[in-house]
TrEMBL record:
<keyword id="KW-0808">Transferase</keyword>
<keyword id="KW-0812">Transmembrane</keyword>
<keyword id="KW-0472">Membrane</keyword>
<dbReference type="Pfam" id="PF01066">
    <property type="entry name" value="CDP-OH_P_transf"/>
</dbReference>
<feature type="transmembrane region" description="Helical">
    <location>
        <begin position="68"/>
        <end position="87"/>
    </location>
</feature>
<feature type="transmembrane region" description="Helical">
    <location>
        <begin position="108"/>
        <end position="126"/>
    </location>
</feature>
<feature type="transmembrane region" description="Helical">
    <location>
        <begin position="172"/>
        <end position="192"/>
    </location>
</feature>
<feature type="transmembrane region" description="Helical">
    <location>
        <begin position="204"/>
        <end position="227"/>
    </location>
</feature>
<dbReference type="InterPro" id="IPR048254">
    <property type="entry name" value="CDP_ALCOHOL_P_TRANSF_CS"/>
</dbReference>
<protein>
    <submittedName>
        <fullName>CDP-alcohol phosphatidyltransferase family protein</fullName>
    </submittedName>
</protein>
<feature type="transmembrane region" description="Helical">
    <location>
        <begin position="132"/>
        <end position="152"/>
    </location>
</feature>
<feature type="transmembrane region" description="Helical">
    <location>
        <begin position="21"/>
        <end position="48"/>
    </location>
</feature>
<keyword id="KW-1133">Transmembrane helix</keyword>
<dbReference type="InterPro" id="IPR000462">
    <property type="entry name" value="CDP-OH_P_trans"/>
</dbReference>
<comment type="similarity">
    <text>Belongs to the CDP-alcohol phosphatidyltransferase class-I family.</text>
</comment>
<dbReference type="InterPro" id="IPR043130">
    <property type="entry name" value="CDP-OH_PTrfase_TM_dom"/>
</dbReference>
Length: 248
């Protein structure tokens, strides 16, 4: 069993009493899925509010630039919303409320959640002057969408395509933990910077990198996952075509 599966089973055991309580009081999987989306919208709003720190709007300056507390809180909300993404499936199974529409509803809202969160992070990085770093968030957004799209398109062709290293749980945890650690570091060491000797304008390290590096990691490996899924589908489809031609 993979480490991912072991961790998933542990979390399922922890949240099982809560899941059964939800089933008992009549909470539906779709309601939980929608709640997860709302929480991700809240996370996006937190990043947008954080992006305005130190910026002048209509003649007023909001807070001070470089305040990473919003990043930390945004990461916490993303991680909390991820629990709802796990609970909706469990509620559906335990409460025997699984349906094909529920699966579709879950997939669509998950995509909206990722788009909204990564938009908030892009917005934050751009307004805080980290345009180059914001490109990693944009590439992560592309990779996240393509991982899901390749799977959906493959399943439409009758191919099971669930493999890959950077699936949604890994993406959520990586980005959320990076944001939380960035916020904590910024809180305890708000002015810590390392620059090139004698060239203070060229930074070697600043706290924002604690968020950007995990996002870059997701950007790279989510796209690799999408490409590997595409290669898997290519092999399966070519084998099917070969068998069909041989049968003729």
């Amino acid at each position: 069993m993979k480490a991912r599966d072991i961790a998933q089973q542990i979390i399922y055991k922890i949240i099982d009493p809560l899941v059964r309580g939800m089933v008992k009081i009549g909470i539906t999987p779709n309601f939980i899925t929608a709640t997860g989306l709302v929480l991700n919208v809240v996370a996006c709003i937190i990043f947008i509010c954080g992006a305005m720190r130190g910026k002048i709007f209509f003649g007023h300056t909001y807070g001070h630039e470089g305040d990473l507390s919003f990043v930390g809180w945004g990461g916490f909300v993303i991680l909390f919303a991820g629990l709802f993404d796990m609970m909706d499936g469990q509620v559906a199974r335990v409460g025997k409320m699984s349906s094909r529409y529920g699966a579709l509803f879950d997939s669509v809202l998950d995509r909206y959640s990722e788009l909204i969160v990564l938009f908030g992070i892009c917005y934050y990085l751009i307004l805080q002057g980290y345009f180059f770093s914001s490109l990693f968030a944009f590439i992560a957004l592309i990779g996240s969408m393509m991982v899901s799209y390749v799977r959906a398109r493959a399943e439409g062709l009758g191919i099971e395509c669930k493999g890959g290293f950077m699936q949604r749980p890994e993406r959520v945890v990586t980005i959320a933990v990076g944001c939380i650690l960035c916020g904590l570091f910024g809180y305890f060491f708000p002015y810590y910077r390392v620059a090139v000797p004698h060239k203070e304008s060229i930074p070697l390290f600043e706290p924002i990198l604690i968020m950007v590096v995990p996002i870059a990691f997701v950007a790279v490996f989510s796209n690799i996952t999408a490409i590997n899924r595409l290669r898997h589908c290519k092999r399966v489809l070519q084998e099917q075509d070969r068998k069909e031609k041989a049968g003729e």
